[in-house]
Design brief:
By secondary structure, the chain is mostly helical. The protein is 68% helix and 6% strand. It has 19 helices and six strands.
Length: 436
Amino acid sequence: MWKRGSAAMGKLLAVISREFGERVRSRWFVITTLFAPVLFAALFIGPPYLAFKSSRTVDLSTLRIIDATTPAMGDGVALELAGGLTGTGKRPDIVTVTPDRLTSVVDSLREAVRTNAVSGLVVLAPATQQSGDFKLILSSSAPLATGDRVRAAVGKEVLRSRIAEAGIDLDMAQRIAQSKATATIERVSRDGRSSTSQVNLIFGAGVAVLLYMVILLYGQIVLRGVTEEKQSRVSEIVLASVSPKVLLSGKVLGIGGVALVQLSVWTTSVVLLLMNRGRLLGALGVTSTNLQMPTVAPLDLIPLLAYFLLGYVLYAALFATVGSIVSSEQEAQQAQTPVLMLLVGSMALLQPALQDPDGPIARFMSLMPFSSPILMPLRLGLGSVPTEQVTVSICILALTAVGAMLLAGRMYRTALLMHGKRPSLAEIARWIRRND
């Protein structure tokens, strides 16, 4: 018996090695593994850098300021749009009008805006000083950052005007006006550890989404692999030396190893990018800060790894079951819908789980095997979860994953040798009940 078990283990390792090596040596594996960090860098660094560059390169000198305020605010707004006292930019032209002519002058200049002769009109009404309200009419070709720059310039001039009217020292008033309330929200877990709520939110949601993507991607790879083996009939030759259970287990575990390698590379790249985001943007001239990553003890990674492996095995077994039943990839795309709905349904529950991580919905669904691989890592990222809940959740998930693998093995064993006939529900039930 020991020799038989040793031989079966050797065959299992051989299948795992074949599935793992075949995919890791693939050109597309290397491309996707290395391309993802590049994509992450573009998403983390690109938008703030492009926003900074666009705001700095906007030409505001082609604006026209229509000033109907008393005392006149147009000069101050034009000065701010040119860069302030130390700025070297060209000031926009100012048209000073009386309040009764404001509407007619604006209407007469709309044609210049429509033809792009003027990029926009900054309309300062008589009530702008008191209310801070003004009107900005932009041409269709004006950059989006124009509105933000003009809004800031008019806001500063309104502040100066009110300060001068109140007779307050300018420097003191500006310091008071720039005072803001900043809150550091700290979440204290049951074990006494604490971290900021924002960091916890990003970390928990990021882990959940990453696990969802990897389980979905590699679960479908198992589905396609089983379907292709049935179509090519290569499995008939392989089954001469390897049992169906060993073949299926090796396929699932080998592809899971590939997923684990890719997940490790992606996770490491994301963490390094977030930790050095401020430095990278600073090198590009953009002021930013690094994101403080949560402190994760090595023991905290064990349940995350368990949920990933067990969740992957569960869904891979379900996808393999679907692949065993169907006879073509077209049928597989339709037949996999129930499995996809289970996985997508877990993602639909992220919002209530984020709002109340310890609420009844989050607790119940984090114990359900089909949603726990997504929701329990989210809860673990947001705060401390009682050990007994984690233990029960992992045990339920493990038992379900083993049951799904046994079910997939029975389906796989019979279906591999069937060709040209779509099984009925009664036949599928007989496959499941078979004990041999």
